[in-house]
Amino acid sequence: MDSLPAVGHADEMDPSPDASAALARAHEHALRWLATLPDRAVPPSASVAEVVAALGTELPDGPTDPATVVDLLAEAAEPGLTAMPSGRFFGFVIGGTHPAAMAADWLTSAWDQNAGMRTVTPATTAVDDIAERWILDLLGLPADGAVGFVTGGTMANFTCLAAGRDAVLTRAGWDVAARGLAGSPGVRVLAGAETHGSVDLALRYLGLGAPEHVPVDDEGRLEPAGLRALLEGGDDQRPTIVVLQAGNIHSGAFDPFGEVIAVAHEHGAWVHIDGAFGLFAGASPAFRHLVDGYEAADSWATDAHKTLNVPYDSGLAIVRDPGALRAAMSMHGDYLIQDAAGDPFEKVPELSRRARAVPVWAVLRSLGRTGVAELVERLCRHARSFADGIAVIEGADVLNDVVFTQVCAAFGDDARTREIVRRMLEDGTAWTTGSVWHDRAVLRISVSNWSTTDADVERTLEALRRAVGAA
Fold first, then answer.
1. Is the whole model's pTM more than 0.85, yes or no?
2. Residues near 77 by beta carbon (within 8 Å), at least 6 away in sequence
3. Are 330 and 346 in contact (CB under 8 A)?
4. Is residue 291 part of a domain?
5. Is 174 helix (H, G, I), strand (E, B) or coil?
6. pLDDT digits over 273-307, tens only?
7. Cα–Cα 20 to 30 A to 215, which of 18, 225, 306, 364?
8. How far is CA 280 from CA 75, 136, 221, 461, in A?
């Protein structure tokens, strides 16, 4: 790595050698970590207390060489790391980092741009603009919509629901930006009974409280008749938001968007879709049918670190009406250098933020349209292989209709299922998570990593067969 140019006055310490050495050491440790992933046990081998002891608890009185700090961090932390980027981590829908995204994320940190203002950061704003257009095009969403690059799925839901809250109250004659929520008509929120907790959290942040639950079917899909009954019954005339789901966390199921959105719009509701991992079904010709009609909604939330395999800090808040998004999120200050074309900070909750669109752009540019579709289809194929492999294990029961990337299985009574979950983690070959679905203990497999191979699936099934045999 070439030395960085000298910075500052002649009488100041040149930071370049320190930066070069620290970055070189970080690069070495990163490559060493990545090289362990194909074979290492997935669970960590050290506890929090052990890592704390290795790092040391006393703040030094004086400075430490940056390269030494990097060495200490990498060596002390490594035993306490879970192999989440491994192709055998199926515990949560968190994906892995695609190589192009990882490298772009390193550059993002090195560039150190506060990517909020068009005039101040033209390079990162250009990437924002392009990534926004590509996302909308890839997913078949309105081309004139707006995309805010936020921290994750929870804040994507928050941002979209803030736009929806303000829009429905504005239509009711209430300016929430000027007057707040006290004294307003209030907002009624309807959501399926198996909506993800991040939606409830976002609603709580927004002062809207818990949603009213709409009945769902056995796979967790919202029932249109139940929604219609709630919208037409009673005398609740509050402005309304309807929250739908693209990808149930247990079954992977998708709400029937076309029918449900039409019902909601008949009653003047804003329709939001939480598609943390499932929204990218829209990028695959083979799975596009799962989201038929979703383009008619008013907002969509997804998390690029899941199915798209971008690093963390990569939520996407997508809103049909850019004006509604900016009305909810933007602010003005005389010290800000604002552009008439609009600025990235007007579409997100923060003023200061990293250039989150850069790794998103990098993955999309690296994979292209067909590569994203193949990624989605490969994840779904692996999930189907898991379901088929589990189905032939004696005493096993696949509980969901495997339509996307989620598999839930039980192995007799709850106690035995929980014991098998425990044995799987003890084995260390793969990480699968226990949960409860329909009041039954389950082992849940979420397939979301670009690097998962057929061999990873088979190794995991072998470990599962061992766990079942020993339970």
1. yes
2. 51, 55
3. yes
4. yes
5. coil
6. 999 999 999 999 999 999 999 999 999 999 999 99
7. 306
8. 37, 11, 18, 26
